[in-house]
Write a structure and sequence with these properties.
Blueprint lengths: L9 H14 L6 H9 L6 H24 L3 H18 L12 H17 L6 E7 L2 E8 L8 E7 L6 H14 L3 E5 L6 H4 L10 H12 L4 E11 L2 H9 L7 E5 L6 H5 L4 H8 L3 H9 L5 H11 L7 H8 L15 E6 L8 H8 L4 E6 L14 H14 L4
Parallel strand pairs: 3-4, 3-5, 5-6, 6-7, 7-8
Antiparallel strand pairs: 1-2, 2-4
Helix pairs in contact: 1-2, 1-6, 2-3, 3-4, 4-5, 6-16, 8-9, 11-12
Length: about 400
Amino acid sequence: MPMKPLFTDHAFDFSARTALGHAGMGVGDVGMVLEAIADTTDGDATSWYDAWHGRADELSRAADAARAAGRLGTAAHLYLASSAFHDESFAFVDGMEDTSLLLPAFRAHRAAWDAFVACSDGRHLPIDLASEGVAMPGYLFRPDASGAARATLVVTNGSDGALSGLWATAIRPALDRGWNAVVFDGPGQQSLLFERDIPFRHDWEAVLTPVVDTLVARPDVDARALVGYGISQGGYWLPRALAFEHRFAAAVVDGGVVDVARSWNRTIPAQLLDLLRAGDRDGFNTAIASGPADPVRARTFAFRAKPYGGDTPYDVFAAAQRFTLEGLTDRITTPLLITDPDDEDFFGGQSRELHDALPGTKEIVRFTAEQGANRHCEPMARGLVGAVMTDFLAAHLPA
């Protein structure tokens, strides 16, 4: 039988499942996640914030005490959990009356994350990355502090995921293999959006190639053994970059995305889509404004639209149309594994479409509800997905 929903609100249910799945990979503990879920009123954004924020603060205080006592392992565990709980707290801030809570909550999340990195005895390091003069905060995770050159997993995050979530989906699987992992905030992601209002870029090669340039110059990175991972909307960005950047031995997208705009376009009626395609900005915006009020849709739109920039709904929809791999897939020669979960929430069918369009070495792996591995980015099966993806990457590393 399928797992019963944790919440009837679809977005709440997905976020709760993600938090549980991440806890299974060491990002906090399942018990505290379940307590936060139990304290949340279904569909109530303020209730969600209160349940997660309060526990995040408790975790930070406990982490501070452990760090002061020299118990760095305990402190690191607690800081990572606090970082994740702070991130969860502002997941639905756009549905709250006081949206000003987002920035302080994000900064508390990032402070806990930085403290987690600092408690690693030198294994993990903040690193400076940049794209076309725009500084991007990055982090290098290493199995030890020896400085030995190692295979390195370079991670492209999704549209709204926090760095703490990448511990479960990419960093820990890489470290368990004895590899490095690199994560960063790119345009439209986390600190670049919340603190500097820098929107997404569709041309991710302009982001990823400078990151690779920086990494291959480091003595602790084996330039012959770079592998890539893109999660969620990173399943568009990474293949887009791989059409131009050919220094990766192999890559994984979780899952595949050929055209980001499809998930936007299916939310509007055909008449609005015609106005969009005709470039009728005023007509499109007028039609949107005259539609029926729907608080849930308004909350979702505010959250999803923010990283695309623009002042009106038309601007957001128009920007999304640029995020397509049309005309580029035949240039992707990097061996690529594509995940294909049952019940994909946002990009249904696009993993198979990407697989079939690729000219080179490729593999598609279905993850099923029977495995507990369905839905977008397999939130409840990160151990299984991590093993499958690192097996594929390891098979393509130089001997």
